[in-house]
Amino acid sequence: MEGKEPMSAIPVTVLTGYLGAGKTTLLNRILSEPHGKRFAVIVNEFGEIGIDNDLVVGADQEVFEMNNGCICCTVRGDLIRIIGGLLKRKDAFDGILIETTGLADPAPVAQTFFVDPDVSKRTRMDGIVTVADARHLAQRLDDSHEAQEQIAFADVILLNKIDLVDEAGIVVLEHRIRSMNPFARIRRTERCSVALDEVIGLGAFDLDRVLAMEPGFLGEDDHEHDQSVTSVSLQEDRALDPAAFDQWFRTLIQVQGVDLLRYKGILSFKGSDRRTVVQGVHMLADSGNLSVWPAGLPRTSRFVLIGRNLDGGALRAGFAACVAP
Ligand SMILES: Nc1nc2c(ncn2[C@@H]2O[C@H](COP(=O)(O)OP(=O)(O)OP(=O)(O)O)[C@@H](O)[C@H]2O)c(=O)[nH]1
């Protein structure tokens, strides 16, 4: 790193925000900007099979995936190990970006950088950036403790997806955010369009402020997750029939949209060489094509659903019925 001592503390940015708010969109934006910096990226997902890794733009950085649980609970040890590995490397990083799962409470993640002695010596928490889905934020603040914590701990809040909400609605949300967190900078965004220096290099994380807000911050974790949220991972090696999938999926989001907090899939359809991505939040779904399936690798469709009242058996049967004849 130019002009820096080899041992100088590496800034860490935590990107948080509820399921589907736009964290990966922001991460891709940061990685695609011509800033000439090298970031190590750590992506954590809720759900057994990783999908985000395929959705993060391939650039100069390495992506470390952690899929075996939520970063704020069971895999804190993994996080410390990954960072420990990074810190041992000769090639320098300008920063570490951590994208947490939408269900993570950011406090224990930030805590890791203060309580682990090796990690705390070599890194510095630069800021917690929370992406909020303007369309669904009010609902989430009513029903999710994690969503509240993500707003409360943020240094910067991107009030994203403002294209889906009118001006009056945005003003109401801004007031609500202010009442929960008087310190954070709030930026209105569409597709997380924001200048890089609004989210990186903030020097914003203030331990004293956090301790004033949550005196137990550096102590033992005592948080609990919303146990009613579960995930179902579907996988299929045979190509899917586009019409059958379309019909199954449309019916699913119509009937169970309220319960579906997030779904994401990379799918192989009969007659197509490209990987199709289908993803969404509640009833708002998006689809598109990614690159062609890599030669020689199995074209396995993967679909992860996260939500309440999910019937794994019925979902598996419905998905399996989409296999092309
Ligand atoms: N209309 C609209 N859609 C958006 C905007 N920003 C992101 N999206 C879409 O919202 C969906 C979720 O975006 P992601 O960036 O994958 O969200 P995420 O927070 O990483 O999702 P998880 O990692 O699953 O929690 C995608 O389909 C995006 O294309 C926006 O400003 N407006």
Automatic annotation (TrEMBL):
InterPro entries from the UniProt entry: CobW-likC_sf, CobW-like_C, CobW/HypB/UreG_nucleotide-bd, P-loop_NTPase, Zinc-reg_GTPase_activator
Signal peptide residue numbers: none
Domain CobW C-terminal, residue spans: 229-323
Keyword terms of this UniProt record: Chaperone, Hydrolase, Nucleotide-binding
Record's catalysed reaction(s): GTP + H2O = GDP + phosphate + H(+)
Name of one Pfam family that matches: CobW_C
KW Chaperone (keyword) present: yes
Domain of life of the source: Bacteria
Gene Ontology molecular functions: hydrolase activity; nucleotide binding
Known role: Zinc chaperone that directly transfers zinc cofactor to target proteins, thereby activating them. Zinc is transferred from the CXCC motif in the GTPase domain to the zinc binding site in target proteins in a process requiring GTP hydrolysis.
Family statement drawn from the similarity comment of this UniProt entry: Belongs to the SIMIBI class G3E GTPase family. ZNG1 subfamily.
The protein's name in its UniProt record: Cobalamin biosynthesis protein CobW
Annotated organism of origin: Skermanella aerolata
